[in-house]
Amino acid sequence: MMLFIAPRFLKEKITKLQVLFAFSSFCGVALVVVAAGGGGGAALYGDVLALINAVLWSGYFVATKRMRTDGIDIWSFMFSIAMIQAVIAGVWALLTSDDIMSISTRDFVLVLTMTLIPGTVGHTAIVWAQKYVAASTSSLICLLGPVISMFFAWLIFEQSIKPWQMVGAVIVLSSLAGVVRYGTSEAAKADVLRNADPLLNSNP
């Protein structure tokens, strides 16, 4: 999705090779999802929610990239995001939940861990990288999510991994290796040209 958005809103140059790797990555993720079948908690409803999340996340990527490129401090950005999330999620929880105070100590620790590690450390790392990596590249790397989730579902919940899911995972990993190799290279070249002395790029 970012391959179509980035050139228009972020002026990023997308190569045919990146499109090829993106398409193969998408096919790999689709294979992982479809091969899961109806068991193991897989559901069409969840897939629809994931699609909605992808659309919203793409918009967030564009906004974050713009603000980081403009020089906004990462901790100021993260603090603002955290406060907005706390207010929205807190009000929603109070209005829709009738057992919000019945959470067990174990569940609270799990929620706290999820908030601190993927929610804070992981999110901050993505926002930090936005200043130095093309949004089209960093967004594609996020396609690793389904592959990593598949592995942890097998490790923690003992959900079976089907052969075609493994094939899809290999396709995703191989494609993303190409995205990182060539996407990062293109971004680096663009940064060099953009930050070069204007005199070197001016007409005589």
Please tell me about this protein's structure.
The protein is an all-alpha fold and 204 residues long. It has 2 domains: 1-71 and 133-204, no CATH class; 74-130. 78% of the residues lie in helices and 0% in strands. The chain contains 9 helices and no strands. α1 (2-9) packs antiparallel against α6, α2 (16-35) runs antiparallel to α8 (163-195) and α6 packs antiparallel against α8. The chain is globular, with a radius of gyration of 20 Å. Residues 195-204 have low confidence and may be disordered.
Please name the defining characteristics of this protein.
204 residues
Shape: globular
Number of domains: 2
Largest beta-sheet characterization? none
Sheet/helix structural class: mainly alpha
* β-strand amount: under 5%
Question: How is this fold's topology laid out?
Answer:
Layout: H1 2-9, H2 16-35, H3 44-69, H4 74-96, H5 105-129, H6 135-141, H7 144-157, H8 163-195, H9 198-201
Helix pairs in contact: 1-6, 2-8, 6-8
Brief overview, please?
By secondary structure, the protein is mainly alpha-helical. About 80% of the residues lie in helices and about 0% in strands. The chain is built from nine helices and no strands.
